[in-house]
């Protein structure tokens, strides 16, 4: 009898006819959510790139006052003692100076004293005369 059941099952399967599915009912169309944070991030990146390009272009057009040859412009004062301060030099100054204050003052940057032309004032001199109301 098991053979008869198999034959019957095969006969049943041969009668199978697929049915076309019905269309799905959609109440409303769902649109993809826009991501404003992602859009803002891309806008910030684009703005940063534009700003970097504009700044590099401006610096390319207007170089700094210190020329590439190492010559300092006319408004920049030169230092009297251009030697770098090393630990050994600082130790020697501290050992030979009569006090700590004297050693620090000897290391202080001192510019060449050039008289200012008529009508010009030193910014440091003007600021030192200003009275602060703190």
Note the topology.
Layout: H1 2-14, H2 36-61, H3 87-96, H4 100-107, H5 123-129
Could you walk me through the main structural features you see in this protein, from its secondary elements to its overall organization?
The chain has 134 residues and is an all-alpha fold. 48% of the residues lie in helices and 0% in strands. The protein contains 5 helices and no strands. It is elongated and about 125 Å long.
Concise summary:
The chain is mainly alpha-helical and 134 residues long. The chain contains 5 helices and no strands.
Features:
single chain; elongated; 134 residues; mainly alpha; 0% strand
- Tell me what portion of residues adopts beta-strand conformation: under 5%
Note the gap between the termini. 112 Å
Number of helices: 5
Shape: elongated
- Number of DSSP E strands: 0
Radius of gyration: 43 Å
Mean pLDDT: 76
Taking pLDDT < 50 over at least 5 consecutive residues as the criterion, the unreliable ranges are: 66-73
Order of helices and strands: HHHHH
Major sheet: size, sense and barrel closure? none
Percent helix, as a range, is 40-55%
The class by helix and strand makeup works out as: mainly alpha
């Amino acid at each position: 009898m098991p053979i008869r059941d198999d034959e019957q099952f095969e006969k049943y399967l041969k009668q199978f006819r697929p049915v076309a599915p019905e269309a799905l009912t959609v109440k409303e169309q769902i649109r993809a959510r826009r991501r404003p944070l992602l859009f803002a991030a891309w806008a910030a990146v684009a703005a940063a790139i534009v700003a970097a390009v504009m700044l590099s272009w401006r610096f390319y057009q207007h170089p700094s006052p210190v020329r590439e040859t190492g010559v300092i412009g006319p408004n920049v004062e030169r230092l009297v003692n251009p030697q770098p301060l090393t630990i050994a030099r600082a130790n020697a100054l501290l050992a030979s100076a009569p006090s700590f204050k004297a050693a620090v003052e000897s290391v202080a940057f001192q510019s060449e004293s050039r008289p200012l032309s008529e009508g010009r004032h030193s910014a440091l001199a003007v600021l030192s005369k200003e009275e602060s109301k703190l």
